[in-house]
Design goal:
314 residues; alpha/beta; Rossmann fold; 12 strands
Length: 314
């Protein structure tokens, strides 16, 4: 089979060479591309004869799925697969897997870092110091004792809960399947918004969760509360969030995920919203997470070739 890594996924040269040699000994060909495709046409050129496509977060459109005549399996080196034309994959019988769990620790740690940054005004304080200013106006808040709300109690939400509890927070959560977890109180959807001092989103993007959070939900929050999104951009209506920030309905927000991969548009509504921490989608970006991702992706291929696919999404 022809295995194509259509964009870099963070493998070291040694890892790539060893895997290519391993596959070649059992009759498979492996190709690695060292840059991201310029467009869908270039992606199609790269995968025209591929049986197995490895991709990270570059979109794979319907045309690519349909015209890659040999395509049987897409191995996504990422957690979300919303950038893959899944309906086309289903229609053609192309299986899709992801790199489940590779960034759980990284995203959870960044969530706490973003919360502390907002509470202690770290980024604005850095800017003032560099402009030779002083600490006047930088009285912040501690994470200890705050009510830390978690919207979605999957693997990342669970890790965030554990970390927040370690900082002495009261941890509350909403999920469709409440659990009996020591140190975490499960509350209804509305109460989560009303009670949280920090509300962190950890939901997948589905038809049910798209635009789940708009101005009505934000108006439920305390004027001193902060919202953090490291999950999926379209769970939150960012125009409504910008309005809430501009009107001081909530105190601030930290965002690491957008409607498209950064660079974001120059007119994005959050760019001029006050009290925001905007990051260029770095939640997964640690050496440790990228190393784990590589192992998961390679094992996904081995398992699929052995007829025992793992981490299948479709």
């Amino acid at each position: 089979m022809n295995i194509v890594f259509a964009e870099p996924i963070g493998l070291t040269n040694n890892e790539a060479q060893l895997f290519a040699s391993e596959m070649e000994t059992i009759g498979h060909k492996v190709s690695f591309f060292e840059n991201v495709p310029a467009n869908q046409d270039e992606l199609l050129q790269r995968v025209a004869d591929a049986h197995i496509l490895v991709i990270s977060n570059y979109p794979v459109g319907e045309n690519v799925v349909h015209q890659a005549k040999n395509l049987k399996y897409i191995n996504v080196a990422f957690t979300g697969v919303n950038h893959i034309a899944l309906d086309a994959c289903k229609a053609k019988g192309v299986q899709v897997s992801n790199a489940a769990g590779y960034s759980n620790r990284a995203v959870a740690e960044l969530t706490i870092a973003m919360a502390i940054n907002l509470l202690r005004k770290i980024t604005p304080a850095d800017a003032v110091t560099r402009s030779l200013g002083g600490r006047n106006g930088f009285l912040g808040n501690e994470l200890y004792g705050k009510t830390f709300g978690i919207l979605g109690y999957g693997q990342i939400g669970q890790r965030v809960a554990k970390l927040a509890g370690g900082f002495g927070c009261e941890v509350i959560s909403w999920t469709r399947t409440p659990k009996n977890v020591e140190g975490v109180s499960f509350v209804d959807f509305e109460q989560l918004f009303k009670r949280s001092d920090i509300l962190s989103i950890h939901l997948p993007l589905t038809p049910e969760t798209q635009n789940l959070i708009g101005i009505l939900e934000l108006e439920l929050m305390k004027p001193t509360a902060y919202l953090i999104n490291t999950a999926r951009a379209k769970v939150v209506n960012y125009h409504a969030l910008a309005d809430a920030l501009n009107q001081s309905i909530i105190a601030g927000a930290a965002i690491d995920i957008y409607e498209q991969e950064p660079p974001i548009e120059a007119n994005h509504p959050l760019l001029k919203a006050p009290n925001t921490l905007l990051l260029p989608h770095i939640g997964f970006a640690t050496h440790e997470a990228i190393a784990l991702r590589g192992k998961i992706v390679l094992n996904n291929i081995r398992s699929w070739l052995n007829g025992e696919p793992q981490n299948l999404m479709y």
